[in-house]
Every structure is written in C-alpha cells, then in structure tokens.
Amino acid sequence: MSPGLAIVLLAAAGLAALAALGWRHPGALLAIVLASFAIGPQWVLEGYLPARLLALATPLHKALLIAAIAANAWHFGLRRGITPWPLLAVLYLAAQSALLADLDPRLTPQVMALSALDLALPWTLVHLVVAPGSRARYALLMALLATLCVALGVVLHLAGVHALYFGSATRGLRLHGANNAGWLACLAFAGFAIALHEALQRRHRGLAALAAGNFALAMLTGGRMGVAACLVLAAGYAGFAGLPARRRIGRPANLALALGGGLGLLLLGAWMIHGLRAEQIEEVFSLSGRDTIWSRYLDQFLDSPLFGRGLGAGSLGVNYFQLPHNEYLRLLVEGGVVGLLVYGGAVVLWARRVLALIAPGERPFVRALFLALAVYALTDNIFTMVPALVPFLYLALLLGEPEPGRSDALKRPVSDAVRATPAPGPRPRSPGPR
Question: Does some domain include residue 4?
Fold first, then answer.
C-alpha cells in the first residue's frame, strides 16, 4: 500500500470517528477542531506528500470547522438577528465574475468556490452557538493555541519530522512550531487578544501572563505584522475604552470616523504598494519581497480596474508565498473597485450589527479587534490562513454570553433550540414511591 493511500484511509477513518463524536458530543468535536488549528499539516508534511494533497489541507481544515459548527447547530441552533451581509456580497461577486468581470480563462469552478469560501467563512462564524457556560473553557483553549503549536513543534523537531525554527538568507531564525512562522504569529496574535480581554474582564493574573507569553511568541516568529497587530489592538483597546459612552458620540461623528479610517487604510495600502521605490520599501518596512508581489498584482488590477478578473484570480498558478499578502489588493484583483466597495460595505454593515449585540463593556475590545484585523489585512492573507478564523470564533462566544460580572444577560436573538436548552445545574429529582 502506498503512503498516500494509507494517509487517505486513515483520514477517512478519522473523519468517521469525528462524525460519530459530533453526533453525541458536539462541544468535544468543536474543541478538537479548535485544537487542530495549532498544527498546519501542509507545513509539517511538506516534503512527505505530493503538492496536490498538501493543497487540500486548508480547505479540509475549514470543512472540519464547518462540520463542527453544523454539529453544534443540530443541538443548539444558530444565532439569529445578524444579516450575513458579507455572504451576500460574495454571492454578488460570484455573479459579477460570471457576467461583468474580465474573467481570467484559467479560472475553474473549484478555484472560484474556494475563493468564495475564504471570503465568506470568517463572517458567518458569529452564528455559532455553543453550550451555555462554556465561554471560559473555549476562550482558554483559543488563547493556548500558540503555546500548543510550539509544544507540538518541539515534539516534531525531536522526532526529525519538522524543524521547530529555521530562517532564510534575508531573515534570521524564526520560530515555526508545528506550523509556518506567519501562521504561528497569527495564532499568537489571536491568543494575545483573547487572553488580554479575558484577563481584564475577569481580573485574572494568569490570563495576563498568558497574553504576555503570546506577545513574546509573536516576536519570536519574526512575523512583524503579528506583533504590529498586537500593538494596534492594545492601543485601540485602551483608546476605545477611554472614549465617552456611545450615546455621547453623534451618528455623523461615527460615520466620519468609519469613513476616515477606511480611507486611511486604503491610502496607506496604496502608499506601501506603489508610493515608494523598492529599495526604500525594503529598507523602511523590510517587506520580504512583498513589494515585488504587490507590483505584479497591481498590474493585474489595472488590467481590469472596474470589475476585476473574477473570484479566485488572486491565487491562480501560485503557491502560498506568492499570494497577494494584502487582502485589499486581492479584492481589487478579483472584484475590481466595484467588488471592493460592495464587499467592504457589507463588512461595515455586519460589524455595526455585531457591535450592537455585544455587551456594552466588551465593545471597546471588539472595536479594537476590528481595527487590528483591518491593519493585519494590509500585509497578510488573513482570509486564507486558518488561524485567522480564531478571532471570529471568539466573537461568537462574546455574543453568546453576557460580559463577566453582569447578571442580566442581554437579549440577543438566538434560535429556539438554545432557548429550550436548560441552564446548567442539578436537575430536580422526581418523587419516588411513597
């Protein structure tokens, strides 16, 4: 039996076992899938499996998450009250690709479907509903993923399967763990954000130490954008927490702030992509070849600036390291200016609704998280990376339970299945025979 066939059979048996687990214990399945984010099969098994099999790792990882969400939905339902605007925008982009775009002839239905999955999945995760009282456990697991990745990396390094750390000609040694350095940096960012918020909400020193540890891991990966996102989140959290209450800020001011922030991000991205000479970019930002990548994708966008080249055009014929590493540029290539505006508008509408449902004491953190993710998207493929789904899963936890210290749960729309779920605690005993 060939190694490839053996791996496929083992994977099929594992999927069957996970399906049985999800049917009986959906929470355990979700925890296992979350823990699996600590390891990147396509990086660990690189050199052991054909490239065509390694390319399936990310879609399969996301499919496992969807299966875990479906298992939870069967038991607890789905959250209502949040219109999936980004999903509708992706459907529009698919129609635009078919009818209006200068469609790249190399695009296939499979490539377009995978791109649609990348753009739609993160925003739909807020509909996840978990068992009541499970926020603390899931949050701790998410905050520990980067540490788990390093621990597994030590084991794989000692076994001679995957190097724990290595570098390149232009970069020093970087910590990879059981993953890729950039993906580990994203896990560390997510762990830092979650641990920091939970520590402040619960006044827990251990979680504060975990947040510091995640920040240290982000630095050890050499992922500058992961470190920058941590700093942006911390500064944004402090800044938003210090703002007056929302009722004191008028709607025009909020609209101006949102438009100004979006315009600022676009101008910063354009300046980074096209405004400096290559040698200046390399000296100031040390973008590790991103200037060359961005120049190539900018040319593709300028070939069809209005409606783009179609969903998936940003990933044709390239490996992960040749992807745009800028989600705004990716959207311009695939959907043009029209597609970027439609998708961006949908995300803004989605974010406004999510903020309205979040407990007031947790809104500063969520605003800071949105800001950090928007900055992170300037220089990385956050819609492609599996670890980038962790912050969105944490948002689902925030929507599912009131902030710590509040006895009055906010009335958030959920499904009838959750309303019917009994609160945890001892069940009343039935009277016995007299």
Answer: no
